[in-house]
Design a protein that fits this description.
75 strands, extended, alpha+beta, five-stranded mixed barrel, five-stranded mixed β-barrel
Length: 1919
């Protein structure tokens, strides 16, 4: 094409924009041999994350040079046109975009259509796309041309919605968007792809504030489709946000189209059409109906700017010209746009595609993209997109098609193929570069229509176009697409990029993968670019493929591994050996990864480590290891591994059990542990961690520092095993309590105290471990008495603790324990004893290291002995003393122990030894006189041996005795005390305990007096020390007297004691017995039989005889009791050997048994009872009574301590809890119950939980919700049980508002009518509040069988209803056709609108609101179909023909009557005569001359008129009327008095002639497409009679096709103005009327039939009596189908066709239609079966009628494809029939298909001239009603241009515009019509119509204007 005359200057670095002139190609060089010469139609597929092909190999400098060269060539082309022409063919192949506006300025049209590519897309472009992927953080949008864009989660919503969606931003996208959703986007930016150089990412935004920029309320018009966000959800609808703060939108929840509720959520994006604009409130009312949205076309607005164009808008377009690769269109008057070849209407455009787009052809198109900067607009004609739906994808990437058909060959560009798929074929395009390795001329190698083998390369989701490849290499290799990649497969790949994060690898098929840096080699690579060269081909193994992201490895061990591949948790089997790589190393083990994200854990014991070694020293992250699976759980996705491939085999006999004691010798000492040789069988090594060397934290580290190889541990506790290694502990606390330590959860029992150690600390608590993996958890509030303390500061990992077991859950294996010092304090001196013993071991180890030091030096410094030393130095804190015999030992005397004695340095002193610190070689001494006196007494030799013994007895303390001691020395960890009572004996007490080692210690002072308990006397086990326990650490309840301890142990379960009552509580007696013992007597342990007040006979201080029945949990709290006692005489009489019985109390309660308990607690809805000491029960409020007054006083009826008897409903053994009900019931038995209920079953099923509520039972209830309308009540009858009270079950009598008097929360007495079980296992209850039913308890409910009913009786069965029975009911729902009333729970009745009243009802919904009580009579009952019809007419108004005849007697020919118009028909007006039930007909010929034309617009239903009786036919019950002015003027009273609306006026029938109705079983028969061509008012009776012939499954009406051809009869009759045609049609019309008369009489006879056939015999009798009645035959077929006998229904249809007389053509045709419907539903296959019947029908009937009947069947069955084919055949066969052409037009419009204009053009050429006006006008009316009004206007304008004097056409045209309501257009049309030069009579008609419109829809000013204009016309005419 010619370049533009002026070329704008452009920076070569800027990306190319739209509409630039094509550039001349440059010759490829060696470095650029991949340049594609055909870029115009080439497709880019960026679907995979690693797309095929790499980036450009040109650097920026080279690209700039090339661009400069191209620009220079273009300038040369402009100067030399001759050269340009020679190069034109090449340029056409290279053009990528046409120059739409550049050449348009110079008057030249572009040659190429605009399209978006990665080269010309720029920020700010608005583009249409389809959602391809929905991720948690972004969306992937498929754009035109195969491009892909990304939308961040923050850009998917407007800022105004961020507050609501910010918290859910990571998870809100999947709930708000769906794949395949069409969205409008705007380009934000383009940036380089970090993963792959040379590729760009397109970032998009869905924010409406950007898309709708420039939108104002004035620019919003009705019918416009807008995109909006749901801003908030309100009660009745949704508030919408359009991106602008100047106006908002509102969407109703209830759709007006189908009445269904529209479900939306906040933040959701939707498209909706504008229904109404409220400019005052600035609110736009929207409709989300998909049909309306898809059909809405943007109107041509004045001054519309390009900013208001949004992608996705549908516009009316007109073809301007065809381009090389598309079409140029004009739309919205001011704009032009282009459609490229891939967006045409035909998905397979052939070489001659341009012939389909003639100039000025009108099309519907949608905007594809808009570039505001260059004003370039792209459009699409794709039929799927035009219908606002994304094209379907029927092929998958990688599929191979062997028989793809070549549709078009684009020379030098590529091939368009048709790929057959499952549903419909898919178009595909193959670029020339993908056709073959070397192809020069495509047109020679490939011909249109040939078949080729192709592989799917990609898919463009927006166009529905696949991209393919024909190269032979594409069919080779194992990997072509991502779906071909399997974890673990070995592939060859080529390195195409290397970066710091790894390498990008491309497989032969084009799929790309990432080789992470850690997987590029076995070892870490510092410089990966040196290791991996770009272009190198290497062998890889696939690690995983997730979300199209493929990762591979080049680790040699993994690539060459022959072991099995572990790619899913389900494949993990015990014993499987495979390769994996270490991902993470921790102290406790290693995490190993496998293929496809599978990972496992190898614990430390399975790593094959040497004892005490570090895992990091043996393994490193990324290392490939061989693993063995030793445990796998696919459900929890856990795999346990071992790196020891062949574990050593140890026999079970040699296995060391956890908790056993072994000995060991130190092998070596590591930084964290001590490794020892163990003498256990099967094990050689063991590990002792540092914290397990001692109980005391400081001594453990000291012990480790002095340990040397060879040291022997006599006793070590086996804590756990790790492979062949033992985990040991040297903690004395664990060793001493080894037999009690649990190794399994089952060995742990509540309320026991166990030693353990802390294995982990978290913020919420501590983990305490025992043996193996048995671990308990102490919550934070149970770990310390001070809840505010910091756990990390109070405890340390490895600390020895004492724990109290609180709870054990055997199912979950969870142990809950307490570490509180108040409940876990030591009861002995083991902590201080172990401290001294460990210190002594440390001292021995230290002495063994020192050769000079004497190991037994401490023997000379025994506690309490006197030693002599020399004062060496006096310090501020005391005096240092040295000893002559032990030079390395020093003594120290504190100032307090000097007792005021002054000592000089160098002097010799005799002191008493108070303490010896062997590890520190330090001795604490004292000079206090108390100890000196003691020495003197001990040195006295004058006492006799007897006196010695007496003194020893009196001076020795007793174990467990509490003494008063004095603090002598305060050490870091203990106190040195003296006991004055025992001659100042020296004792030692710890200042801390196991659990309080890190707690802040209490400060003690020298000389302070403390209370302590003697726990151990001096001996070898105590290192010769007297050990005490401070009472401040343990407030033990044990006494210090051994006699009391002996007495305490004499009580046991079963002992009889004498006890004194100390306190009487509501539920228990408190007693004391023995010496300091306390107990309780539960209220149920007083008597064998339950009494009302069992404690009434007891007083405080009274002594009773009681039996000990249990020992309760002991607590340090003094108020708690220790024993449970019983006063039952039966137990006291037989008190021997009852211990086991009372301890193991059995829940021996059966369902339904009566039990008695005592009230322990009462809350709002529950009464808690105590049944025994350990068993509780609960009684729900609604189970306590059925009387509302008692339920109201629920809390007042029950007081704590009262005895209550009830029946057991359920038993929970785990909780020891019973559920009770107050009334008796039969438990669910195995036979009668729905399922077996086991007594030992702890979980009660839903059936057993509701077993006490049976049908007929009277129960108490509480109203939870009052349902709207006639929904009734929801009543709660149990804790989680609810029932529904039907609206008719609220009262015994029929009252107008039965819900009055009820309120939510009210207690009611109700009876269970029905109990049913749903499929989901829930139980539903139907209840009644009728006082006549709830008066008796548990009585079987059954309806009355009496035939005599009164209006107040409730009828439960349809058999109870008889014709003419008077009944009452409530209105259920109302429509314009009648209403339904409910008679009872299971009975509804239908009332036709004609039977609602004796008179005329203007608004049934207003007169009969939902819930209204009505009284009527049963008119018909059909028990088989359960259909009941009722009439509300009085007996006189609905009487038989005799009463009607009596009314006719009062009418005489010539009478002037008044009445109201009942309905308007094309042939006349039906008028209801006042004060009668007679309807007369005024034929159109009897109307006034000035009102004959378009009389339907001059009269309206309900309008009062005056007429003259012309004829009274009493036999046929007909009255003919006349309304000519002459008739009225002849009367003496020309103006009858104005009368009020009489209530007796009858309303129109239920038949809607314009809307076909599809009904289900039991509903009205449809009356579709019937041309009502009759003049009799009794047609209503016929329709009502035949409407009862409900033949759904056949879905056929008796007159489905029997009459009339036209479906728009009203508008059509207006056009029947040709008098010649009228005369020709009089004869067939008369014949049709006679035929209709016969049908009416038959229908009336059927209405009188009350005995409906119920079996085959009765039907056979009926068909024999009426062999020519199609209604009977069809009912017979329906009956047989209800019995599921399809074959018999077919035989009946055949019999009917053979039996019915050949003259009864319509009757036969009805049966044929029923036969069609039968085969369409039950045929096999339906299409073939229907066509066989159709061919038979054609032999017997008018083919045109049969075709129309079959078309109706296809349309009702929604077989649209068959209907379209049939309609096409019909217009070929009956091409002269106007009706057939109109049916085809109607189908196209209803199916929203294109081609109406082409069809109209064809019809104009074929139809006779006298039918053309009728056809075109009817088509225009259809366009107005269900198509495009603009096309309708065009048709009317063309007709009126040729027939300007046809006032009937003007009238219909005006009626259609008035219906649409566009005021401006209506006024303009009226002005044109009233400006014509027509006869006065016609002008009068037009002015009258104009005035009527203004009076109804305009204002007074407009009406005066019309009158003035009419006057002006009259004056001009007269003049």
């Amino acid at each position: 094409m010619a370049p533009s005359s002026k070329k704008p200057q452009k920076n070569p670095r800027d990306p190319p924009k739209f509409n630039k002139s094509s550039k001349k190609p440059f010759k490829p060089t060696k470095d650029h041999n991949n340049t594609n010469a055909a870029a115009a139609l080439q497709l880019d597929d960026d679907v995979p994350d690693f797309p095929r092909g790499g980036g450009s190999s040109l650097n920026r400098k080279e690209r700039d040079e090339i661009r400069a060269e191209v620009d220079a060539e273009f300038e040369a082309e402009e100067r030399d046109l001759n050269k340009k022409k020679k190069r034109a063919p090449k340029e056409s192949q290279e053009d990528e975009l046409g120059s739409l506006f550049g050449d348009g300025i110079s008057g030249k049209l572009p040659r190429y259509a605009n399209k978006i590519t990665i080269k010309n897309i720029t920020p700010g472009i608005k583009v249409w796309g389809v959602v391809a992927e929905v991720n948690e953080k972004d969306l992937v949008i498929s754009l035109p041309g195969g491009l892909r864009g990304l939308v961040r989660a923050s850009d998917a919503f407007d800022p105004i919605l961020d507050d609501e969606t910010e918290a859910l931003v990571d998870s809100v996208l999947p709930s708000m968007f769906r794949i395949g959703q069409l969205v409008s986007c705007i380009v934000l930016q383009l940036d380089e792809d970090k993963k792959e150089k040379g590729k760009q990412k397109i970032w998009l935004s869905l924010r409406l504030s950007l898309l709708h920029k420039g939108f104002t309320l004035d620019s919003v018009q009705e019918g416009m489709v807008l995109t909006a966000y749901i801003k908030s959800v309100e009660d009745h609808g949704y508030i919408l946000h359009f991106g602008s703060s100047s106006f908002t939108g509102f969407l109703q929840k209830i759709s007006q189209a189908d009445g269904k509720e529209v479900q939306m959520s906040s933040g959701q994006l939707l498209q909706a059409a504008v229904k109404r604009v409220d400019k005052i409130r600035k609110v736009v009312h929207m409709s989300s109906d998909s049909e309306i949205v898809s059909k809405s076309v943007t109107k041509d607005l004045k001054g519309i700017s390009i900013d208001l164009l949004v992608p996705g808008m549908m516009v009316n377009a007109r073809v301007l010209s065809t381009l090389e690769n598309g079409v140029m269109l004009s739309f919205l008057t001011y704009f032009t746009g282009t459609v490229d070849i891939f967006h045409l209407q035909n998905s397979y455009p052939t070489t001659n595609w341009k012939e389909d787009y003639n100039q000025n052809k009108k099309l519907n198109a949608r905007i594809l993209f808009v570039d505001p900067s260059s004003r370039a607009v792209g459009l699409t004609l794709n039929p799927h997109l035009v219908r606002n739906k994304a094209p379907p994808a029927h092929v998958k990437i990688g599929d191979i098609c062997d028989d793809a058909k070549v549709v078009r060959v684009d020379r030098g560009l590529g091939l368009l193929l048709e790929i057959p798929s499952t549903q419909i074929s898919t178009p595909a395009y193959v670029s020339i570069s993908d056709v073959a390795e070397e192809v020069r001329k495509l047109e020679k190698k490939f011909k249109e229509g040939t078949h080729v083998r192709v592989r799917i390369l990609g898919f463009r989701y927006l166009e529905g176009l696949a991209t393919g490849i024909l190269k032979a290499s594409a069919f080779e290799g194992s990997v072509f697409t991502h779906s071909d990649v399997k974890p673990g497969m070995v592939v060859r790949g080529k390195i195409i990029a290397v970066d710091s994060f790894g390498a990008i690898v491309q497989f032969p098929g084009g799929v790309k993968a990432l080789c992470p840096l850690t997987h590029m080699s076995e070892f870490e690579i510092a410089k990966p670019k040196k290791k991996f060269k770009i272009g190198a081909e290497l062998i890889f193994r696939v690690l995983g493929c997730k979300s199209k992201r493929i990762t591979v490895t080049h680790k040699k061990t993994l690539v060459k591994s022959k072991l099995g591949i572990l790619s899913s948790y389900a494949d993990a089997a015990d014993g499987l050996i495979t390769h994996g790589w270490i991902r993470k190393i921790e102290e406790r083990g290693c995490f190993v990864h496998f293929y496809n994200g599978v990972q496992g854990f190898a614990p430390r014991s399975e790593l094959g480590l040497e004892p005490g070694s570090d895992p990091n020293a043996m393994y490193h992250v990324g290392q490939v290891v061989k693993c063995r699976i030793i445990g796998a759980n696919a459900t929890s996705r856990r795999i346990k591994l071992s790196l020891i491939i062949r574990p050593p085999r140890v026999s079970e006999d040699d296995m060391v059990k956890l908790g056993s004691l072994v000995s060991g010798v130190v092998d070596r000492v590591t930084p964290n542990a001590v490794v020892v040789y163990v003498n256990a069988k099967g094990y050689s090594m063991g590990t002792i961690f540092t914290d397990h060397l001692a109980d005391h934290h400081g001594l453990a580290a000291l012990m480790k520092s002095v340990l040397k190889p060879g040291y022997e541990f006599d006793q070590l506790l086996v804590l756990d095993t790790e492979g062949n290694n033992l985990i040991l502990s040297a903690k004395p606390s664990l060793i001493n309590s080894a037999p009690k330590l649990p190794s399994e959860v089952s060995q742990v029992h509540p309320n026991t105290v166990l030693h353990g150690y802390i294995c982990n600390l978290i913020d919420t608590g501590c983990f305490v471990r025992f043996l193996g993996r048995v671990t308990g958890f102490s919550p934070r509030h149970k770990a310390m008495d001070d809840h505010k303390g910091d756990l990390s500061e109070a405890f340390y990992i490895g600390q020895s603790v004492r724990s109290t077991i609180l709870d054990v859950n055997t199912e979950t294996g969870r142990i809950t324990l307490s570490l509180k010092q108040s409940s876990c304090s030591s009861t002995d001196a083991s902590f201080i004893q172990e401290y001294f013993m460990t210190e002594e071991k440390v001292a021995k180890l230290q002495s063994s290291d020192s050769k000079e030091f004497k190991p037994n030096w401490s023997e000379g410094f025994s506690i309490g002995s006197v030693v002599e030393g020399k004062v060496q130095e006096a310090k501020d804190i005391g005096v240092v003393v040295s000893f002559e015999r032990y030079s390395d030992v020093f003594g120290f005397i504190t100032h307090y122990q000097l007792a005021g004695t002054t000592i000089e340095t160098g002097s010799i002193v005799r002191t008493v030894v108070l303490d010896v610190a062997k590890a520190e070689h330090l001795v604490d001494l004292s000079l206090k006189p108390e100890f000196s006196t003691k020495l003197k007494q001990e040195s006295s030799k004058s006492q006799t041996n007897i006196k010695k013994r007496r003194r020893e007895v009196s001076d020795d303390p007793v174990v467990h005795e509490t003494v008063n001691a004095v603090v002598e020395i305060v050490k870091d960890n203990y106190l040195v005390l003296s006991i004055p009572k025992y001659n100042y004996a020296v004792g030692y007490a710890s200042v801390s305990d196991y659990n309080t080692q890190k707690f802040p210690q209490k400060q003690f002072l020298n000389g302070q007096s403390v209370n302590a308990t003697v726990m151990a006397l001096p001996g070898p086990a105590t290192a010769g020390r007297l050990l005490l326990l401070l009472n401040s650490l343990s407030e033990s309840a044990d006494t210090s007297g051994s006699k009391r301890a002996k007495k305490k142990s004499s009580y046991k379960v079963g002992s009889v004691v004498q006890a004194e009552i100390t306190e009487i509580k509501p539920l228990e007696l408190r007693l004391k017995f023995g010496i300091g013992f306390h107990g309780r007597v539960h209220i149920t342990e007083v008597n064998d039989d339950a009494l009302e007040d069992p404690f009434n006979f007891f007083r405080i201080g009274q002594t009773v005889t009681a039996l000990i029945v249990a020992k309760t949990n002991f607590d340090n709290n003094k108020k708690s009791f220790q024993w449970d006692l019983s006063l039952k005489p039966s137990l006291l009489a037989g008190s021997c050997e009852i211990e086991g019985k009372v301890l193991n109390e059995d829940l021996a309660f059966s369902i339904g048994n009566r039990v008695t308990g005592y009230v322990s607690k009462v809350d709002a809805e529950w009464v808690w009872l105590t049944i025994s000491r350990n068993v509780r029960a609960q009684l729900f409020i609604l189970d306590s009574s059925c009387e509302p007054s008692e339920l109201q006083d629920f809390q007042k009826r029950f007081n704590v301590g009262n005895a209550v008897s009830a029946h057991v409903m359920s038993v929970s053994k785990d909780k020891k809890l019973l559920r009770l009900v107050s009334y008796p019931f039969d438990p669910v038995s195995k036979k009668a119950g729905d399922q077996e209920v086991s007594k030992t079953d702890a979980k009660v099923s839903m059936l057993s939980a509701t077993a006490h509520i049976r049908e007929g039972c009277v129960v108490g209830g509480r109203i939870i919700k009052i349902l709207p309308g006639i929904g009734g009540l929801t009543v709660q009858i149990g804790p989680h049980m609810y029932g529904r009270v039907h609206y008719s079950e609220l009262s015994d009598s029929w009252v107008s508002n039965p819900l009055s008097g009820y309120e939510e929360g009210q207690f009611v007495k109700c009876k269970v009518l029905e109990r049913s079980l749903s499929g989901q296992g829930t139980v539903h209850f139907d209840l009644s509040l009728r006082s006549s039913l709830v008066g008796t308890l548990c009585q079987d409910f059954s309806g009355s069988d009496s035939d005599k009913h009164t209006p107040t009786e409730h009828l439960e069965k349809i058999d109870d209803l008889k014709p003419n029975m008077v009944i009452q009911g409530y209105v259920k729902n109302v429509s314009s056709k009648g209403c339904f009333i409910l008679l009872s729970r299971k009975l509804d009745a239908k009332i036709l609108v004609s039977n609602l009243s004796d008179g005329y009802i203007d608004d049934p919904e207003k007169e009969f609101p939902v819930g209204k009580l009505v009284t009527g009579r049963v008119s018909s009952v059909e028990p088989l179909s359960k259909r009941v019809e009722v009439t509300l007419k009085s007996l006189s108004a609905s009487s038989s023909s005799q009463s009607a005849r009596n009314t006719l007697d009062s009418l005489h020919v010539g009478d002037i009557i008044s009445g109201r118009i009942k309905r308007l028909e094309s042939y006349g007006i039906f008028i209801t005569i006042d004060n009668t039930n007679v309807v007369g007909l005024c034929h159109v010929s009897e109307l006034s001359e000035d009102k004959k034309d378009n009389f339907e617009t001059k009269y309206s239903t309900g309008e009062r008129v005056t007429a003259k009786v012309l004829k009274v036919d009493k036999e046929r019950h007909r009255v003919s009327l006349g309304m000519k002015d002459l008739y009225i003027m002849d009367n003496s009273d020309p103006t009858p008095p104005k009368q009020e609306l009489d209530e007796s006026i009858r309303h129109a029938d239920l038949v809607d002639d314009t809307k076909p109705v599809m009904c289900s079983v039991g509903s009205f028969l449809e009356d579709q497409n019937v041309d009502i061509d009759h003049e009799i008012a009794e047609f209503q009776s016929l329709v009502q009679a035949e409407s009862r012939a409900s033949v759904p499954p056949l879905e056929v009406t008796l007159d489905d096709v029997g009459q009339g051809d036209d479906f728009v009869s009203k508008d059509e009759e207006l056009l029947e103005v040709d008098t010649v045609d009228d005369k020709k049609k009089k004869l067939p019309k008369k014949k049709a009327r006679d035929e209709r008369e016969r049908e009416i009489r038959a229908a009336e006879e059927r209405l009188l039939e009350k005995d409906i056939p119920r079996n085959d015999e009765e039907f056979e009798k009926l068909v024999r009596s009426s062999p020519n009645n199609s209604y009977v035959w069809i009912k017979y077929m329906e009956f047989v189908l209800s019995m599921a006998d399809v074959e018999k229904a077919r035989s009946i249809a055949k019999r009917a066709l053979e039996t019915i007389n050949f003259r009864e053509e319509n009757e036969k045709l009805n049966v044929w239609v029923a036969y069609f419907n039968l085969e369409s539903k039950y045929g096999s296959p339906p299409e073939v079966a229907v066509m066989k019947v159709f061919q038979k029908a054609l032999q017997y009937h008018d083919p045109k009628k049969v075709h129309l009947a079959l078309l109706g069947v296809f349309e009702r069955s929604e077989l649209h494809k068959l209907a379209d084919e049939l309609a096409d055949n019909m217009i070929k066969r009956f091409k002269k029939s106007c009706k057939v052409w109109l049916r085809r037009v109607q189908r196209l419009l209803l199916q929203q298909q294109d081609g109406v204009q082409d069809l109209v053009s064809r019809a104009e050429k074929i139809l006779p001239k006298h039918k053309q006006i009728k056809f075109l006008s009817q088509t225009a009316i259809l366009e107005f009603k269900c198509g495009n009004p603009e096309r309708g206007r065009s048709l009317f304008e063309n007709i009126l241009r040729q027939n300007p004097k046809r006032t009937d056409l003007w009238s219909v045209y005006l009626d259609q515009e008035i219906r649409l309501g566009d005021t401006d257009l209506i006024h303009a049309l009226f002005e044109r019509a009233t400006s014509l030069s027509l006869p006065a009579k016609k002008m009068k008609f037009l002015f009258k119509k104009y005035l009527d419109y203004e009076e109804r829809h305009g204002n007074e000013e407009r009406a005066n204007y019309v009158k003035q204009k009419a006057m002006s016309y009259v004056e001009n005419t007269v003049a």
